[in-house]
Amino acid sequence: MLDNIRIVLIETSHSGNIGSAARAMKTMGLSELYLVSPKQGIDEQAIALSAGAGDVVKNAVVVERFEQAVGDCSLLIGTSARLRHLQNSLIEPCQCGEITMQAAKCGEKVAIIFGRERVGLTNDELLKCRYHLTIPANPDYSSLNLAMAVQLVCYELRMAFLSQTAQEMPVVAIENTVKNTALLATAQQLEYFFEHTERLYQSLGFIQNQGVMQKLRRLYQRAAVEQNELNILRGMLTAVEKHLYFHKE
Amino acid sequence: MLDNIRIVLIETSHSGNIGSAARAMKTMGLSELYLVSPKQGIDEQAIALSAGAGDVVKNAVVVERFEQAVGDCSLLIGTSARLRHLQNSLIEPCQCGEITMQAAKCGEKVAIIFGRERVGLTNDELLKCRYHLTIPANPDYSSLNLAMAVQLVCYELRMAFLSQTAQEMPVVAIENTVKNTALLATAQQLEYFFEHTERLYQSLGFIQNQGVMQKLRRLYQRAAVEQNELNILRGMLTAVEKHLYFHKE
What we know:
The structure is a homodimer.
Chain A: E1 5-10, H1 15-27, E2 32-36, H2 44-49, H3 54-58, E3 61-63, H4 66-70, E4 75-79, E5 90-91, H5 93-105, E6 110-114, H6 123-127, E7 131-133, H7 146-167, H8 171-180, H9 187-203, H10 210-223, H11 227-248
Helix pairs in contact in A: 1-7, 5-7, 9-11
């Protein structure tokens, strides 16, 4: 599904941003990058900053005009910081993820378009988009780096992708995940531990009323103690007891 | 609430990442940055990449040791890519946002800790954290840039912050929740407890390797131990010690 999603960068000024954006995309499982007349094309700087995502940069499609980058897409989402006048098509990254994955699942081709570092997308470009994506940043300082914005959007795309695939998770896989989690102590095992603790610390003169045991019970209930952890706690009690008996003899 | 949250960067190699992380923080409304022995301190590169967030960089607190950066915090969240062994304390950025804002709202001091660019956090550092944050990245290429990871986490913090403020909880209700929540043990207090436990049970011959302490640390981190509970646990250790010394005399 993720390969139905295209990231489009318009007239980027710095090739480094292309590389960083490519890396951000790949970490979230996206790979299709289109560049509309970048000021600095793909160079060493772009490759260097892409780190392990050099393939995304090298496979990037460079075109001259906006239309050439989105012509074959059926859903266009434009990003911008200044979108006051576009309330009824405004979405945030989380919605963007859901809307995009819904469309991608149905085989639609989606383009998510990022504007120029300084001035963003033109009104003309924004008007060609069905949705307008804005990141709810700090109003006192909303200047996200271009690649950072790409990272956030791709992250929400991946979250939406994972939640959709999770819904289609086969039973076997679920059973496996259950198997992986450590076995919790049973109520009976915990009860033995509490009795053991009370016995020992009464004999040491530390526990004189129920208050202490009640607090300890609450603590360990809350902790959801695993069996191997309980074995350690029981072992510690026994270690102290051995010492007591040793001195009694 | 956001000012109860601290971002901690451990031994960063590149000062540029400090600047980019600071910019990422400020775009999401965070400002408290701690640096644990950075390889490159705050320099022109850091200031340049922080763009409009130079204040966050300049106000960053530089310390030598992990403990100095988190000692006064009661909720520690460590980030890492390799967390297979930590199932029951694992969280994703979205949960991290909710958990952190809940705690921050109740006046708790929260530290979110990011490890070294290449090797992340040590197991020892991870064991000092109650929760372990992992970003569900592309398994074939999960190498997020440090500042990108900070951006994603701060974004989810802001999302949680905005949804909470949107609910506009009445003042009385907030006061109550604050009153009701017992004070949690700080990282420093927990550390003393762990050291005390290790000392005593080594002398009893029960602890012979690190495995036991690691399991105990995980258990008590998970339990979110309250100060009054910690007093009991410390008291139990002392009760046993008194007995040891008594017999030594």
